[in-house]
DNA sequence: AGTGACCCCTCCAACCATGGGAAGGTCAAG
DNA sequence: CTTGACCTTCCCATGGTTGGAGGGGTCACT
């Protein structure tokens, strides 16, 4: 199977398959004489695994661990569960962050008459010198969420 | 005021101030003879505005619009409200996405005994050939959320 | 006047995951 | 043999932010 068919069958783009190979998430494949990558059904299976893990929001690094655990017949389900639950924790923190942003904006938008007149509480809030937001946590730019603030 | 003090006072790092200048979000500042950027209290006010908008998850492009509207005394609050509510829509879609991921994982983790034995429903789910997830929408990799799937 | 501790400058690279495209090789069908 | 669909590698862009290198400025203290 060529890379295009493998991409089709797995739902991972050819671009990403090459990228995953380049970073070592998947091993280098066999090549034809002409240099074309060749994939087996088993490879497609792995790619599908990877795609599902991506769909669940795991990072490539986490997926790398999950793939290892998957391949490892002696794997401890404890390890898998730990990775999954750690990820859930991160997800839930991000959810809260986004909810606070949305709440703050909804609150401000509600008090904004939204017509052609100037004078808008949203702008005024942003421009104020006072406490950043009414919903406190949205201002914690560098929460303990990792290296960077949540990009939205 | 030098850039460091402006950064301190506004909560925007010196690096980011230079970046915002370079992309035109803020105008070029006056410089000292030695080439140091000089900031006024008003500049700091603008930077604080920008930081708050970032905290609310607005993109730089949106912030650029908001800053223009802020400066424009004839601004229509309608325009501000529209930007804010559009952003809320995006936020809420992302929240739902993340919630679905978290739900799926929580569900799988619940059925994972999580001890030293092998055999783990989380891995098995990822590896299965069947329907991607029990919570359907988490698999819609390219939902109508914009250019790319939500990176987590 | 020298020295050390900071500050500032610009430019370049990295992160993450992904898409786009150019320039060239390969393959199968017509 | 031509055409078109595929493959290859390589480079570039995204967005927002941080980091570093390498060079210079400023200031207070000795």
C-alpha-based Rg of chain A, rounded: 23 Å
CATH-level-2 architecture of the largest domain in chain A: Orthogonal Bundle
Report the uncertain regions of chain A.
133-149
Overall structural class of chain A, as computed from helix and strand content, comes to: mainly alpha
CATH fold field value of the largest domain in chain A: Multidrug-efflux Transporter Regulator, Chain: A, Domain 2
Strand content of chain A: under 5%
Describe this structure in words.
- Helices cover 56% and strands 3% of the residues of chain A.
- Chain A has 152 residues and is an all-alpha fold.
- Chain A has two domains: 3-58, Orthogonal Bundle (Multidrug-efflux Transporter Regulator, Chain: A, Domain 2), CATH 1.10.1660; 87-139.
- Chain A has a two-stranded antiparallel sheet.
- In chain A, a hairpin with a 5-residue loop joins β1 (30-31) and β2.
- The longest helix of chain A has 34 residues, at 77-110.
- Residues 133-149 of chain A have low confidence and may be disordered.
- At the A-B interface, α3, α4, α5 and α6 of A face α3, α4, α5 and α6 of B.
- Chain A binds a DNA duplex (30 and 30 nucleotides) through residues 2-4, 13-16, 18-19, 32, 34-37, 54, 59-60, 147-149, 151.
- Chains A, B: InterPro entries: CueR, DNA-bd_dom_put_sf, MerR-type_HTH_dom, MerR_fam, Tscrpt_reg_MerR_DNA-bd.
- Chains A, B: It comes from Microvirga alba.
- Chains A, B: Keywords: Cytoplasm, DNA-binding, Transcription, Transcription regulation.
- Chains A, B: One of its GO terms (cellular component) is cytoplasm.
- Chains A, B: It is found in: Cytoplasm.
